[in-house]
Amino acid sequence: MRVLVVGSGGREHALCWKIADSPLCDALFCAPGNPGIADVATCVPVAANDLPGLVALAQREKIDLVVVGPEDPLVAGLVDRLNDVGIKAFGPSAAAARLEGSKAFMKDFFARHNIPTARYARFTDPASAKAYIQKNGAPIVVKTSGLAAGKGVTVAQSVAEAESAVDSMMVEKIFGDAGNEIVVEEFLAGEEASFFALVDGETALPLVAAQDHKAVGDGDTGPNTGGMGAYSPAPIVDAAMQERVMRDIILPTVRGMAADGCPFKGVLFAGLMIDAKGPKTLEFNVRFGDPECQTLMLRLKSDLLPALVAAADEQLKYFDLQWSDDPALVVVMAANGYPGTPAKGTVIGSLDKAAAVEGVSVFHAGTKAETRDGKNVIVANGGRVLGIAATAKTVTEAQARAYRAVDAINWAGGFCRRDIGWRAAAREKQKV
Fold first, then answer.
1. Cα dist. 204→102, 193, 245, 269, 427 in Å?
2. Torsions phi, psi for 337 (to 5 deg)
3. CA distance 109 to 257
């Protein structure tokens, strides 16, 4: 097969790394890719949001399957355009991608199909949103309805903080048009988990769960980011919890989307909050998570490529996947200034030393290759820049390996959280 992966982040590097390992893959392209992806695929300088350019590239290279990584081209309808010209693609249609593209649509869908979630209301004017906040009090959660790169969420501890978030989103437009409509919902306490399933419109195949770390600082402090690290498996999602999530959340969603005339195909990513009463759905994403994807690809023993084809071809009922029992953990290294304005152009050295640590894989996200003083160097070119991933027999050991690799990297312009995987590591300590 000739395969094209769309995107340039750590998720796409992990997908390319895994697909390149498939005996079915004869040629692998990535648009636009990054310097790390260039080690396993041919990178083509076509932007992930250039839909006509991507369709033309797929036609020109006679691509058999396009794997769409990021949410933006999915919401914009890239899969529809590819299907229109007879090119197979992994990912949902624009109509199905509204599950992520519009939180208002998603929450209304939950209500229609009795999918457990937080109580909510949606607003298109700030005054009504503030009145609702004043009536319900804090803590309370304020979210942009549209896409905001994982950053359009404020968990407000006071009414004043919630009202400030409303103004930032709807009046100051810090997230652009994503804040034209907002969702205000009750605060849910518990433990978060990321649950993934491959879906072919009718059948859903559960993958393994992971746990993300959204806050920028140690101890889950500071503003939300796109994700500062993750690990898999998530201990809170045992076999019984997986069965419950599939029964109460994933399968009703698959049936509901089909009944509503927009069957879902691709990967369904449920962000869950789990407490003593069970799981509730914080949100749906319609693509592999980043950085969760990196941990999933490290644990997947099966060939990924035929599974993606089976989802696109509505053949998942004949499919199964095998997973390693060994945990995987990824630490995100971000550029100074993130999640605000990241410092770009700082040189990153000694990546080879990090990759040489036992059990470690280095995934590139916001990187760029440049020539400086006659030398080829890697520089920071985004907010989340690298994903330092490790596998081991325990989360504690994977954590130690990942941070050993982090410390081997020579990059004064970046930072990371030092406590990725702390919940699982604490559980392991209690068992000893």
1. 22, 18, 12, 12, 30
2. 105, -25
3. 9
Q: Within 10 Å of residue 137's Cβ, how many Cβ atoms? A: 11
Beta bridge partners of 82: none
3-state secondary structure (DSSP) of residue 315? coil
Going from the C-alpha of 140 to that of each of 144, 216, 275, the distances in angstroms are 14, 20, 17
Please name the residue ranges forming H helices in 300-355: 304-312, 351-355
Candidates 296, 333, 324, 338; CA nearest to 409 is 333
**324 burial type by CB count under 10 A (0-12 exposed, 13-18 middle, 19+ buried):** middle
* Domains annotated on the chain, with CATH: 2-94 (3.40.50.20), 119-186 (3.30.1490.20), 192-318 (3.30.470.20), 328-431 (3.90.600.10)
How far is 177 from 253, CA to CA, in rounded Å?
Answer: 27
pTM of this prediction exceeds 0.70: yes
Q: How far apart are CA 384 and CA 225, in angstroms?
A: 9
* DSSP at 175: T
Going by C-alpha positions, the residue among 329, 336, 421 that lies closest to residue 385 is 336
The answer for residues whose C-beta is within 8 angstroms of residue 160's C-beta and 6 or more apart is none
Cα–Cα distance between 90 and 268 in angstroms, integer? Answer: 12
Digit-by-digit pLDDT tens for the chain (432 residues) are 999 999 999 999 999 999 999 999 999 999 999 999 999 999 999 999 999 999 999 999 999 999 999 999 999 999 999 999 999 999 999 999 999 999 999 999 999 999 999 999 999 999 999 999 999 999 999 999 998 877 788 999 999 999 999 999 999 999 999 999 999 999 999 999 999 999 999 999 999 999 999 999 999 999 888 899 999 999 999 999 999 999 999 999 999 999 999 999 999 999 999 999 999 999 999 999 999 999 999 999 999 999 999 999 999 998 999 999 999 999 999 999 999 999 999 999 999 999 999 999 999 999 999 999 999 999 999 999 999 999 999 999 999 999 999 999 999 999 999 999 998 999 888 886
Joined tokens for residue 175: 């997230």
Backbone angles phi, psi at 124, to 5 degrees: -115, 0
